[in-house]
Structure formats: structure tokens, C-alpha cells
Amino acid sequence: MRNISNSAIISLLTNVLILLVLAKSLSLVVLWYLPNEGVELSVKENFQPKYQRVDFKNMIQRKKRENMSATANIEDVGTNITDMILNGLYGTKNSGFIIIALKVNPSKTDIVAVGELYNGYILKSIASLSAIFQKDGKDYVLYLEQQNGKSSSYVTKIKVDGGSDSKIELTRKEISLYAKNPKEIWKNISITEVKDGKNIKGFKVTKINNKSKFASLGLKVNDLIIKANNIRLKSYRDALDIYKNIDKLDMIQIVVIRNNQEMELVYEIN
After folding, report:
1. How far apart are CA 21 and CA 4, in angstroms?
2. Nearest 5 degrees, angle CA 256-CA 194-CA 116?
3. Which domains does the chain have, with CATH numbers?
4. Taking a C-beta distance cutoff of 8 angstroms, is the pair 246, 156 a contact?
5. 12-26, 111-125, 153-167: range with highest mean pLDDT
6. How many whole angstroms separate alpha carbon 266 and alpha carbon 255?
């Protein structure tokens, strides 16, 4: 009985060992074919870009509305003035002058500089096509009058530096054009006020186009204009009073300081 039992135990152990060997062999084979690193879940990414609809028509119209609004903020800042006529503008926002008249007497024009009083209104600033006034703390706007003036010509004879006379022809249409379009003036000449303390000493020519009519008048860069027809120029009004009386004048004399010396430019109007 003991021999049979031992044989059975030995047979069972042998079978178990064989199974263990087979299992180990199978595990070695499986491990041989598996990758060294772990396996991760691969997620396919969506590379479709996001988009946003752009309406160029609305963008352009919005930009146009913004520009119109900006223009309105500059020029349409107050109540319209209806009893005055704005004939000309000269200068920038906070400096310069305007040519103005009352509707009851349009032929009587006045020159008003920024900060001066006219008909109860103070000229506050100058825009591209209008003048901004102030009265009792309220802003008022006066727009440039569109006029079709008659064109007539006159000849100016110039005596410069004691040299020979030269002539140029100007038309009143050209004068009116410059008066109403100051940008055309600034393209050819720039003049700035020179002060001695709080008082204006004169008006200095800072830029001039040598091919323009202004250069043919004998003016040069750095000239300091101090007198016109023996009147000391102490304001924009003094400097351009001659404009409104030009039809009554036969001669204009301008005194400038050039190279620390006074020089007289004479214009004979025929």
C-alpha cells in the first residue's frame, strides 16, 4: 500500500512540474514578442482649424461711419450761426485768422484772429471748412461760404534788392482760391508769428516753394515781415487788413528783416 501511494504522489508531482514548465515556456514566448514599452491609447486629433466669418462690407461701412463721426466731432460742435458769412480761412486749429462779414452788410469784411471778439462771439478755433466760436460758454459753428467770385487780373511790379523790376500776373480768382483754401497756401509757404514777450514782433517765413508765386514776390526763407504800408504788424488783423482793401490800393510796401537788415519790397498795382 505504501508503494502505491508513493507512486501516485510522484506521478502527480511530475504532472504538476510539467504543467509549470509548459506555462513558463508559454510566458517566455509571449514576453519575447511583446514590445519593450507600454501600449498607450492613440487618439486621432482633429486638425480642422476654427474659423470666423468676416464681413468686409460691414467693416468698410463701420470705418466710414467712424470717419464721419470724427469729422462731425471736429467741425459740427455747436449751433449753426446764420447771421454771418465766412469768406476765408487761414491757419490751423488754435492759430490763424478768418475773413468774415455780417449778412446785413456782406461787402464789409473783417479779419478775426483766434481769440478775438466779433459780433459778440469769440473765435475759438479753426477747422478745415468751418470756424468755431464761443459765446456765454456755448459753442457755435460757422461754415465756409461757397462763392463764385468774378475773375479780374492785376499786374504787380516788384523791386527787390535794388535790382531790376520783374512782373507777375495774379487774378482775383487766384486770391479768392488761396483765401478759401489755406491748405494751398501751406503747400507753398509757411509763416509763423515771432513774439517779443507777449507781443508779436513780426511774421517769419519758415518755408517757401521757389517755383510758387510767393517766391516770385521776392520773399525768402527766414524773412521777418514787420511792416505793411508803414503799419507795424502786431496781430493777424494788422497783417491782413490789406487784403480787404486791395481794390483801393495802388501800391503795397512790405518791410522785412533779412540778414539783420531792414529791406523794403514794393508792389505797384496797376
Report:
1. 26
2. 110
3. 56-143 (no CATH), 153-269 (2.30.42.10)
4. no
5. 111-125
6. 9
Q: Please compute the mean of the pLDDT values over residues 226-244 and round it to a whole number.
A: 75
Residue 247 identity (one-letter amino acid): D
Write the burial class of residue 33 (CB in 10 Å: 0-12 exposed, 13-18 middle, 19+ buried).
exposed
CA–CA gap between residue 96 and residue 115 (Å, rounded): 10
Partners of 130 in the β-ladder:
143
Q: Would you state the pLDDT for residue 202?
A: 87
Question: The C-alpha cell of 25 is what?
Answer: 515556456
Q: What is the pTM of this model?
A: 0.44
Pairing mode, strands 79-80 and 138-143: parallel
Please state, as a whole number, how many other Cβ atoms lie within 10 Å of the Cβ of residue 203: 20
Most confident of 62-66, 80-84, 139-143: 139-143
**Cell digits for 253?**
510796401
Which pLDDT band holds residue 30 (cuts at 50, 70, 90)? low
Instruction: Kindly report the three-state secondary structure assignment for every residue of the chain.
Output: CHHHHHHHHHHHHHHHHHHHHHHHHHHHHHHHHCCCCCCCCCCCCCCCCCCCCCCHHHHHHHHHHHHHHHHHHHHCCCEECCCEEEEEEEECCCCEEEEEEECCEEEEEEEEECCCEECCEEEEEECCCEEEEEECCEEEEEEECCCCCCCCEEEEEEECCCCCCEEEEEEHHHHHHHHHCHHHHHHHEEEEEEEECCEEEEEEEEEECCCCHHHHCCCCCCCEEEEECCEECCCHHHHHHHHHCHHHCCEEEEEEEECCEEEEEEEEEC
